[in-house]
Amino acid sequence: MKKIKVLLLTDEAWNDHIYPNNNMTNWFTDFENIEIAHVYCSEGEPLNKCCNYYFQVTDKMMFKSIIGKNKAGNIIDISFKGNNNTESNSINKSFFYTIVKKISGTHSEFLKLIRDFLWLLGRYDVEKLEMFINDFKPDIIFTQRVGTVKLCRLERLLRKISGCPIIAFTGDNEYSLKIINFSPFFWIRRFMVRNAINKTAKYYSMYYTSSREQALEYAKKFKIPTSLMFKSGVPNYEKIHNKVNKPIRLVYAGKLYCGRWKTLALLVDAIKEVNINGTKLVLDIYTRDKLTKKQKKLLNDKKNVFYKGGATPDELLKVYDNSDIVLHVESLDPINRLITQHSFSTKVIDCLSSGCAVMVVGWEKHSACIELKNSDSAFVMTNKEEVFETIRKIAEDNDLIKIYSNNAMNEIKVNHSRKDIQKKMYGDFLKVLDEGRK
Questions:
Q1: If you count Cβ atoms within 10 Å of the first and of the last residue's Cβ in the chain, which end, N or C, has fewer?
Q2: Is pLDDT of 318 > 50?
Q3: H or E stretch including 373?
Q4: Fold held by 4-232+417-434
Q5: What whole-number distance in Å separates Cα of residue 368 and Cα of residue 413?
Q6: CB–CB of 156/199 below 8 Å?
C-alpha cells in the first residue's frame, strides 16, 4: 500500500496528557502507511506516539511579529527525545498564555475579535515554514479544526507553499447564520469567518463533518464532496453489565455550559417523580465546573442527585464500571441548541464504549440525537414529556438497560470501529490524490 504523507493542521498542541481522548490520537494510532507532520497554533509541546515533526505558531509569536522584527513560527523535532517525551506533560503557563486562554473562554466577542486581528495581521516566518514543508514533502493537508479566520489564513498559506489538496474536518457550527446572538461583535466575527471559509473552500478536496445536515449544506454551497466522520471506539462485549444496580445509577461526566445544567435539572425532576415511593434511580454528576447556588440546589440534593466534582479519564472508567446508564446531554433552549446543533461530542463514543446503556437528551435536530435515534443505540429524548416517560419506563423495566447496553456496543462495532474508520480515511486520501491536485 502507498505511504501517504499527511500535513496535519490543528489549533491546539497534540498532547495526550493535557487533551486525552483527542481525535488525532484516536484516528491515527496504529494507522499503517500514514506519516504525519503537524502544524499547530498554541503554546506547549506535543506528546503523542504518532508524530515527531512539528511547526508551532503562538499568539505571543504573532504579537511580537507585529511590534518587532521577528516573524512567527518555530520548527520542533522531538524524534531525538523519543515518542514518550515526559517533558511535554504540561504547558508553560506564561502571562501571555493565561491572557489568551481567558479570552478564549470569555463570552466577550470584542476580545475574541481583537485576537482574530492579531492572527490576520501577524507575520508568519514563511521561509522557515517552507523549509519545514519542503523537508517533509507532504502529499495531502488534513486540517482538523473549527473554521476561523486564523486557521483559514494558515490553510491557504500551507496550500500555497505545498500545492497539496486539503481535506478539512469540523465538528461545530462554524458557518450557519441560523443562530441567536445579540452581540454585534459576534456577527462581525461570524461574517469574517464565513468570508474566510468562502475564500478557502476552493482548495478543499473533501470536507468531513459530524452532522448530516451540515454535510449536505456544505456540499450544496461549496460544490465539494462531503462525508461524515466520527471518533472511533473499541467494541468489547465483555464490558457489558449483566446486573443492574439498586437503585439504578445514572452518571453524567462533562461540562455544564451552554445550558446543559438545565437539561440535567430536568432529568432530576423526572427522577424525583419516580422516587416518591422509594429510591429507584440516582444521578451522579462528575464535572470540574463549580456550581452556583442555584445549581447546587438543583443538582446536589444528596438524595436523587449527587455532585461528585472532577474525575480523570481513568477514574471515569471505574465510575462507568459501577454505573448502569451513561448520560450525554445538550441544551434544549432555543439559543444554545443552535450553537451546538452540529456538534457530535467525542464523549458520545466514550459513552457507547463504556459497557453501560446510553441516554442522550437534546434537541431533535442535534447531530448526536439524530444519529443515535436512527440506530436505536441509546435512549434518546428530545423534550420534557419524553424525558419523564423514559425515566418511568426504565424504573418499571430494568431489562431495557441491558437491551440498550448491547445496542450501544453494537453501534461501536458497526459504525465506529477504528479499523473501518482508518480504512475509510485512507481510501478518501487516495481518492483525493488520484483525482489530482486542484
A1: N
A2: yes
A3: helix 367-375
A4: Rossmann fold (3.40.50)
A5: 17
A6: yes
